[in-house]
Structure formats: C-alpha cells, structure tokens
Specification:
The chain is an alpha/beta fold. It is built from eleven helices and 14 strands. The protein has two domains: 134 residues, 3-Layer(aba) Sandwich (Rossmann fold); 184 residues, Rossmann fold (3-Layer(aba) Sandwich). Helices cover 34% and strands 21% of the residues. It is elongated.
Length: 342
C-alpha cells in the first residue's frame, strides 16, 4: 500500500485529491495538511511513501516546506503547480531542491475539473513511491569539465537526449559539464507541459558554458548549442536546402507525449544517418525505444543511463531490454561519452 500525505491550502483541492488517490486500491491517504508548516510536521511524524505539495501556500510556502522535508525527513515529493511564468520558475526551483516531479494543475480549467488529472496523478504517485530513498536530496554531480575518452571512429554531428521524471536534475548535472566549443548540436526532449520548458532552458543556460535555449520553428540546428524541445508540440529535424532545421508541429497527435523522444530521434536518424547519437536518461515509460532503434538502424550510436543513478529506471530499462541501447553508463559519465562521440 502506498501511503500519501496531501499538502494544500485549498480544502476543495485536498478533498478532490483525497478522493482521486483514495479510489485506487493500492493508495492510502494517511493525512492532509493545510499549509507547509502543518505538512512538514505530518510528513516527519507519519513517514509516508509520497507527498503531494502545493507550491503556493500561506504561512510556510511550498519551497520552504520542501527544504524542510528534504532536510528532516527525506520523502519523494510531487509538486502541484501552474504554468504561469512565476509558477514555472517556482516549479523548476522545487525540482532543483529535491522534488521528483510535478503535476500542472492549470492543464484543467479550474478546481472543479481536477478529476481530469487523476490518471497522471496516480501514475506519478506510483512511480515516485518506488524511488530509492538514497536518491532523495542527492546533490548534483560536481560540474567539472567532461573528460575526453578515446574518440569513436564515427563522429556524431548531433546528439539527442530524451528524459522524463528526474530529468531536470539529470540535465543540471550533465549540461554544465559540456564545453563552450562543443562541435555538435545537442537536442533535448524533456517531458514537460507547455510553459515550463523555456524556464528549464533559461536555468540551464545560466549554469552552462554551452548556450542553451528553447528551440524555435524553422531555425538551423547549430553546433555548440543545446536546444530544448518546447512543451506541448513535437520537435523534429528536417533538411531544407541541404541544411538541418527545427520543425515544430502537433503530429502525430496519437503520441503519448508531446514532445516525444521517439518522434525527434526518428527524424534525426533520417536527417543525419550514422552521424547522430541518441541517449535516454531517467524517466517513466518507454518513450525513446523506437527512436533509439531508428538511430541504431541508421548506424548511429546509442546509450542509456544505468540503474545506479536513475531516479526512475523506466525509459533506460525499456531501451536496454529492447536491445536498442548499446550500453548503459552512470549519469556522471554521460558527458564524457558525448565528447567521445562528437
């Protein structure tokens, strides 16, 4: 049984979340809390498996409560946020402070429609309940420059990185280790709703030598730059006039995630052939399996993050079990592998 504490200043939201989670046979809501101070006390007393935490509350806000929880009684935390500019910044800060993932409350219109979040909420609560406690509050790897191992014979002009739950922290550990003179382009799909990916790109850019920005439709894919796929649309690469350019659209609408790792990797494999590399990092589900397959079939290189450093060993595990990732490496070695491939 997964034991959950709900922390939210809205009585309606507390009741709605309690009903949604309590309806599942494997979840028990053991307490609700009306603000951050109440939440910290109940989490430390009851030691639940997962905490859902509103980021904006009176008295003690969500970020201060998160700091206290991670310091006093580390527990997997799922943030409830909104995609306003301020909400996105607070959410990204929360992920840096140790929250595992978030649910965008503004994806449904008003509190009365919170039931529309039930599937996403339950899936994320179940995933976070399985996070090893030793991963909680773990500081990012030091941002030392990557070490160049023996270079591969086949060089990659572009590297595609796909990730989901735990991805923002993984990217914070990886991207700042890449050098400014990086000879290839880096394209990143992080499963996030519209409104959050620009904040992610801005925060990575502030910490990195290599420029990082949210991708724009029609722009060239330049070496020495990290482009983050915008939330809510698919990012693809197509050659126009012989030059690879970013293409943003909604197709395929049937894809479980938008942006999709599979969609981007498949188009990169077609545009670059063997001169590409695909990597999947921590995350739920199987997105990236078919994309890595396309890159391998085109002659490119593929790898997955190893279980020892994954927050959620889902996407990498699926890739390795499908035989589409050549090998697995811990997160601190991924930047070294990129430099060896480019």
């Amino acid at each position: 049984m997964i034991r959950v504490v709900i922390v939210d200043d809205s009585a309606f939201v507390r009741q709605a979340l309690s009903r949604m989670l309590g309806a599942a046979s494997d979840v028990e809501v053991v307490a609700t809390a009306v603000d951050g101070e109440d939440g910290v006390a109940k989490v430390c007393e009851l030691r639940p498996d997962v905490v859902t935490l509103d980021v904006r509350m009176p008295r003690m806000g969500g970020l201060e409560a998160l700091r206290r929880i991670m310091a006093d009684c580390p527990t997997p935390v799922l943030l409830l946020s909104s995609h306003t500019s301020e909400g996105a910044e607070v959410t990204l800060r929360g992920l840096e402070l140790g929250a595992m993932d978030f649910v965008d409350k503004s994806s449904v219109q008003g509190h009365m429609n919170l039931l529309g979040l039930a599937d996403e909420l339950l899936a994320k609560v179940r995933a976070l309940a399985g996070v090893p406690r030793e991963r909680l509050g773990e500081p990012a790897a030091p941002a030392r420059p990557a070490v160049l191992p023996a270079r591969h014979q086949q060089q990659a002009d572009v590297v595609v990185i796909g990730t989901s739950t735990g991805g923002p922290s993984a990217l914070q550990a990886l991207v700042p280790r890449l050098p400014r003179e990086l000879p290839s382009a880096i394209l990143v799909v992080q499963h996030m709703p519209a409104g959050f990916t620009r904040s992610l790109a801005d925060r990575l850019d502030q910490r990195s030598a290599v420029p990082v920005r949210e991708a724009e439709d029609g722009e060239l894919v330049p070496p020495g730059t990290v482009l983050i796929a915008p939330g809510g649309v698919h990012m693809k690469v197509r050659r126009r006039g012989g030059q690879p350019r970013v293409w943003l659209d909604d197709e395929p609408r049937s894809a479980l995630h938008r942006p999709s790792v599979d969609v981007l990797m498949a188009t990169v494999a077609k545009a670059y052939g063997a001169r590409c590399m695909g990597i999947v990092l921590t995350g739920m589900g199987t997105d990236g399996v078919e994309g890595l397959r396309a890159i391998r079939e085109a002659g490119g290189r593929t790898l997955a993050e190893s279980q020892e450093t994954c927050v959620i060993y889902g996407m990498p595990k699926a890739a390795l079990e499908a035989g589409v990732a050549e090998h697995a490496v811990p997160l601190p070695r991924v930047a070294d592998e990129i430099l060896a491939a480019v």
